[in-house]
Amino acid sequence: MIRQMAMVAMMGVSLMAMGQVAKPVDPLHAWVGLQDADSLAAWTNWHLAEEQRLVAELTAAKGARTAENTLKLYDEAQFHLMIAGNQVNLMFTTHADKAIRDKAQALTPVVSAASVALSLNQEVYHALSAIDPKAQDAATKHYLERQLLEYRLAGVDKDAATRDKVKRLSDEMTQTSLEFSRNIQDDMRKVLVKDKSELEGLPADYIKRHAPAADGTITLTTDSPDYTPVMTYAKSAQLRREMYLEYNQRGYPKNKTVLMHLLELRQEMATTLGFKTWADLATADQMVGSAVGMHKLLNDADAASRVASAREFQMVSEFAAKQGATNLSLSDSAYWNEQYRRSAYDFDSQSVRPYFPYAEVEAGILKTAAALFHLEFRRVENAAVWNASVHAYDVYDLLAGGKPALAGRIYLDMHPREGKDKWFSESGLIPGVRGEQLPEATLICNFPGGDGDPGLMQYSDVVTYFHEFGHMMHEVLGGKQRWAGQSGITTEGDFVEAPSQMLEEFFRDPGLLQSFAKHYQTGEVLPAAMIAKMNLASAFGRGSWVQGQVFYSTYAMEVHDRDPKTVDLDALLKDGYVRFSHYQFVDGNRLYASFTHLTGYSSNYYTYVLDKVIAVDFFAQFDPKNLLEGPTALRYRKAVLEPGSSKPAAELVKDFLGRRENMDALKKWVNEEFEKP
Ligand SMILES: [Zn+2]
What we know:
Elements (H helix, E strand, L loop, with lengths): L36 H24 L6 H28 L3 H22 L2 H8 L8 H16 L6 H26 L4 E4 L10 H6 L8 E4 L2 H10 L3 H11 L6 H19 L5 H6 L7 H32 L10 H13 L12 H16 L1 E5 L11 E7 L7 E9 L11 E6 L9 E5 L14 H19 L19 H10 L3 H5 L13 H12 L2 H17 L10 H12 L16 H4 L6 H13 L12 H10 L7 H9 L6 H8 L6
The structure holds zinc ion (ZN).
């Protein structure tokens, strides 16, 4: 995932102490002088004041509108908003000092409000639309067009009454989404287990954590640390079914009403802005372009994965039948897939952990990225960082001609600590501007290690590391545009996961893995036989995984691509499961009441499907016998990563593939396990 600043509309929050803030010593370096809450506030307010000054200068400019007298000021204003937003988000999610975190939290809505105000500023919109696009270079023309499109999608070009309506709908949508989330948070459910024997199959530490009460009963909750192990390991089909139903009824019935209201608000917003449905509005600035484009993508991905999914189900259900389990339902799926995988591949994911101590993995990933992208990473020991455990590296470009040229800085904040966010994410810190500003980016993760412990990583942790590093390379290598607003990961939202999912694929290469995966005690290199087993076990289930993603995406689309009056949430849900899963539907499943992606992604959950299609298509261009040294990586760097968002994402894809993406590589990817030699 990547983290973007939350655009919560919090209008009417006034900027604090505007105009009374002294310019910080080094305003372009993110946290110089930010060791206390007051300096964070002063630093942030200075950037917000700069933004206001630039917008005022822009709107007051006289004469013909040009890129120099208008777009440049607009882009600089965006630059200040971006670094202020990134900085307060970083401090809020990572700083060990609660006073700084609290101040950052208080500043978040202030920065958001400034962003919202600029995104709705009609004077700025008119000024930008007066620039002659034909007089600009291609990147500038594209930037201008995209900004104007975003303004129109927010209704800024409309009359006052329409803008008032858009504002009212937007505020109400924000409130309704918050209510939806709150109803889920407030509805943690419990399952009472009468006897310890019902927990059979669960790991020993899980059973230990759930000691029986005086009357012998054990209480489980629907929180994921309780829920996921039951679905994966519990032998009792009855317990799995009970947990599954409670979990999939969170938020119900309240959220059925809330969601229907949200769908109606969205539909009204779409028609107000001249679109037929919300799905059309939400995709107008995306790669797929429209609800029709999204529909075609999902149909194609369905066709590419349907056969593999059916075959996987057949293998799992035959295996289960031999052990007396028939008529498998959705609450049995995770358990029997896990049992089948263990038996068929004789692979225990715990067995590879000793080969992935954190420090070796970090070194290995840097080495991989350096070779692939022709870079050098130099550790900066005395860099100003927000916590002593953060590693800073300067990134040098080896292709700049002559000697290595500084290209940016990255910060790795990789281990958990008190007060730090629990997620894994990459985030830009400072957007790059060609010739003026080098890009900086952060990784915020929670991998084991860092406290004297070797930090033995799970297989899935290492994949996550590759994924997030893919975002980071996009951020840094794409950071040399003329405009800050086109730096790094500022492409269409439905393209951003392609470079990160692409880098995940490298993790499976034996040569690459053996270059860094060494036993933390003996130094033994991860054996080739183990890698082969690991790869086969992880390749099983891909068909069902794609079908699952197509199911979620289709549901998100179908509740948004028609008049809400004709939407039956329950009927669409059951129908979707019947179409995309071989496991029987469990009556009483109300998934939609806790499907939070319906508020976040709305109709656009398909993003991960599209980007998986693109990622495996990209990866298929590499020579499997020579992944790192071949010419493809360089071509990829130049065609896909370096341009940032100076071109439409569809063009980046075409520049690299020589055509648009297709389903051939995905078809091969989902069938890989069955086509093993
Ligand atoms: Zn990601």
